[in-house]
Design brief:
about 45% helix; 4 helices; about 0% strand; about 100 residues; disordered C terminus
């Protein structure tokens, strides 16, 4: 994902769009942190980013009213606890290096 310019642009444009439906489900600072760490080569988040892209594209096509969805506990999905905000400790995963 780091090397393919067109795919990288699609990923950034889709996930960071102000119209992204994903905003209703996950903390976008967490997503931006994944993108940033992956693109600078500090960590390999290719799988997670691909899954987020597929989810966003699915939501755009099939979910019509994500604003009315209220996650249990009033928080966003588990992504926040698995991948801390930028600057937080990284989970125990292999580095991209």
């Amino acid at each position: 994902m780091r090397g393919n310019g067109q795919f990288r642009q699609l990923l950034n444009d889709t996930l960071e769009s102000s119209n992204a439906r994903l905003h209703d489900f996950v903390r976008m600072d967490t997503v931006r942190g994944l993108l940033e760490r992956h693109q600078r080569g500090a960590w390999d988040h290719a799988s997670e980013l691909y899954q987020l892209l597929v989810l966003e594209l699915w939501l755009q096509r099939h979910a019509h009213d994500t604003q009315s969805w209220n996650p249990p506990g009033g928080s966003s999905l588990v992504l926040d606890s698995v991948y801390p905000s930028p600057g937080g400790a990284a989970p125990n995963r292999r580095s991209a290096r």
